[in-house]
Every structure is written in structure tokens, then in C-alpha cells.
Amino acid sequence: MSVLVGKKAPEFQATAVQGDHIVENFKLSSFLGKHVVLFFYPLDFTFVCPTELHAFGEKLEEFKKRGVEVIAVSVDSHFSHLAWLKTPKVCGGIEGVGYPIVSDLNKTISRDYDVLVEGRGIAYRGLFLIDKEGVVRHQVVNDLPLGRSVDEALRMVDALQFFEKNGEVCPANWRKGEKAMKPNQKGLETYFGK
């Protein structure tokens, strides 16, 4: 498994669906200047996946308040995404999810982010927090049966943005509004090469 933290997020151009619209030539690079939470899930019309997509949807305003774009990716076609978005939640669908869902039918995006389960043709539950310059600052990859914590994704966004604004590092279990730590110049050089 590749560690992408500290590296440029792999660029992609693909077809995406947002609401009831198909978006051709959807590019990650069009979000430069914004923070991005990019997450992969195995397949449409499954069991754990809709719980995650709804959970991100329920917190979408919290991400937007922080200037963060949420983007989902799976190996399904955009037609499958569209059908799933039109399916009510009570029937296992994701009706009402408002962020873009990218089609990675040829599996190149999943492969570039090293979340593709080779031999099965689906993606692990990878999540990547990308900064305004397009650099991956956080990544976590769960096995297929293990759903993610959207609250933890928000906490990591808060920690990154706090560091970017204040230059203070965030200890374990830090939450927005709590005390952080101000490293000395030598500490900054050790961590960040500045």
C-alpha cells in the first residue's frame, strides 16, 4: 500500500454524477484552492456503502462551512450512480446525496490511490484529505466491512485548518476549540523541513 501523505494527490478526469446531473470531464484539479475530502467505497447498491454516503451527506453543510469539497469515487458506472441516487433511502438508495460521485469504471483512479482490491475489481474504503495546493495531508484505508467515521474526517479537517492558520500542532483526540501545542522553530524544522 502506498503512502500518499505529503505527495501531490493523483490527478484524474472522469465522469461524475451530482444530484440528477451527469458531469463530463470532472477533474480533481478544478478544486485547487479548496480542501477536499476524497473517499472511495466498494460498490453501489450494497450494504455498508449507503450508510457512509448518507453519513457524509448529513454532514455536508459542516464540510461546506469549512470550505471543504466532498467527493466520492467507486468503480461503478455513472449510470449506476444515477440510478442509485434516484433510489429512495428506504429501498437501499442514496436519494438526496448532494456531493459528486465519480465513476471509476476503468479502475485507474482506485489504482492510482492504491485502494484497488486487485482480483476483485473494487476499492477499499480509502479516504484522503487534500489541502488547497493539492497535497494529501491525511489518508486512512479501511477493509471492506468496516465503515468510516465522518466525525473523524471532520476532526482531521479542523486539525489541518487549525495548523495552517495558527502553526500549532494538534495532540491526540484534539477537537476544535481545545488547546493545541506551539512547537519551537527547531521542532517545526524537524517536522516540516522549514
Could you give the topology of this structure?
Layout (H helix, E strand, L loop, with lengths): L12 E6 L2 E7 L7 E6 L7 H11 L1 H6 L2 E7 L3 H8 L15 E3 L4 H5 L3 E2 L4 E2 L1 E6 L5 E7 L7 H17 L18 H8 L2
Parallel strand pairs: 3-4, 4-5
Antiparallel strand pairs: 1-2, 1-5, 3-8, 6-7, 8-9
Structure overview:
The structure is a single chain. This protein is an alpha+beta fold and 194 residues long. It has a domain at 13-147: Glutaredoxin (3-Layer(aba) Sandwich). The chain is 28% helix and 24% strand. The protein has helices at residues 48-58, 60-65, 78-85, 108-112, 150-166, 185-192; strands at residues 13-18, 21-27, 35-40, 68-74, 101-103, 116-117, 122-123, 125-130, 136-142. The relative contact order is 0.19.
Quickly describe the structure.
By secondary structure, the protein is an alpha+beta fold. 28% of the residues lie in helices and 24% in strands.
Features:
single chain; 194 residues; alpha+beta; Glutaredoxin; seven-stranded mixed β-sheet; two-stranded antiparallel ribbon; 6 helices; 9 strands; globular
Structural class by secondary-structure content: alpha+beta
**Strand order within the widest beta sheet:** 2-1-5-4-3-8-9
Shape: globular
Largest sheet: 7 strands, mixed
| Beta-strand content bin | 15-25%
Order of helices and strands: EEEHHEHEHEEEEHH
What is Rg?
17 Å
| Assigned CATH class of the domain at 13-147 | Alpha Beta
Q: Please state the average pLDDT score.
A: 92
Q: Extract low-pLDDT stretches.
A: none
Q: Count helical runs.
A: 6
Our measurement of the CA-to-CA distance between the termini, rounded to an integer number of angstroms, reads 28 Å
- What is the assigned CATH homologous superfamily of the domain at 13-147? Glutaredoxin
Would you count the extended β strands for me? 9
* Helix percentage range: 25-40%
| Named CATH architecture of the domain at 13-147 | 3-Layer(aba) Sandwich
- CATH fold assignment of the domain at 13-147: Glutaredoxin
